[in-house]
Structures are given as C-alpha cells and as structure tokens.
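For consistency, the fold was encoded as tokens, which produced the following:
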Amino acid sequence: MDLSLSQKQALVPTGCLRAALNHGNFVLVSRNEQHQPMGISVDLARAFAKAAGLDLDFVEYDRAADVSASADRGEWDICFLAVDPKRAETLDFTQPYIRIDGRYLAGPHCDLADAGALVAAGAKVGSVEGSAYTLTLARQEGAEHLVLFPTLAESLAALDAGKVAAIAGIGEAMAHEAAKRPGSRVLSPPFMEIRQAMAMPQGRPEAARILKDWLAGAARSGLTGDILERHGVARSCALLPD
C-alpha cells in the first residue's frame, strides 16, 4: 500500500498501530516459550502494519468480551473478532477471512447422541459470557438452559464437576479438551459457523476502508491461506471476499 500521511493518521491517531489480541481463542492467538504473542491474528496484524508502513504494538485481552467492551475507550486501532450483529453496533467489521465451527463438548456423564438431542432435552450447557458462540446461542432454541461463566477454564471446571451436561466453544478447542477427558466427546453437527474478521471502532470510515481493502487483497492473493497453514489450520477454512 502507498498511503498518504493523512491516511496513516486516520489509521493510527497515536502514531503506532495498536492491535487488540483476544487470548480467549487459542486457535487464533497463543504465546510462545518467551510468553510473546503468536498466531494467526498476530501474523495478520504484522502483515497489515508492514504493508501500511506502520509501527505495531499489541494490546492483549483475556476474552473476546473484553475486546468488544473496550471499543469506545480508544485503547486499540484494530482487532480480531467473530462477526456478530450485537458487536457491529460499536465495531466496523471487514468481510470474514476464516470460518471455524462452534461445537458442544459433552461430558462423560452425558449420554445424549448429538447436538440436536442435547438442545431438545433441555440439558444445561456452559458457555463463556460475551463470546461469539454465546451471543449466537442466546438467540437460538435452548437459550434458557445456558449457564454462563467468565472464562473457558471455569466452564470446563463446571463440566468436570457434572454441573453442566456440555459446554459450547470453538470446535478445535473442544476437540483439544475432549482428548484430555476420557469419555467426553464433541457432538455433531456444529451449532454454528463462526466467521472471524478484522474490525475497528465505528466512526473511522477512511481507516475502515483501508483495512477492508487490504484484507480483501490478502485473501485473494493467498496470504491469509498461507498464514492459516503456518499455524496448522486448513487452507480450506480461509474465506474469499464476495
């Protein structure tokens, strides 16, 4: 990109690109042995900063809800979140660049056959408050049986204690947790397709246009697919712009 000074100022009012990271989704963000952030979101932020000729700094949060709740506080310039109508009230989203399944992890004490049976039975399902899958499930049948927890660790603890029949989460994360819990299993079919995008706070139309155009080009060029593969996510999960 060949950006003018005014365009760079629109993107980075503080002089440095501040990228919010959500550590609640380890598919997209994790930490290396030096406790530095790494992952798909990190690589996308670095690629965008390099293309725009901007310095980069990371602003780290434990949960997606913490990122979206801070949208009007001027703490960051870009973020990486699942698209949701409620979040779009304060965030200007790009088109999604990756799709991830939302699935239920059933505990060993739950003998229900699939996701449909879980909902039909009115079983208690744990979910992390403010997450994309919680926002979606709250609009679906069975919402009254959701039990919300501040963190994934707390929802897993409730599952292990038999306080909920299952928990909701990102498919790959649920499979990872199932492997550590004999008798537990990930239920089919997925209850949603989570579409992850980049975003920035509402009210910055010029900056939002630059971000949207760059990400669309990154998708078409294969850059996003390359980044996904680098972090063990199938290239087929990458989404091309309409």
Observations:
- The chain has a mean pLDDT of 94.
- Residues 205-221 form the longest helix (17 residues).
- The chain has nine helices and twelve strands.
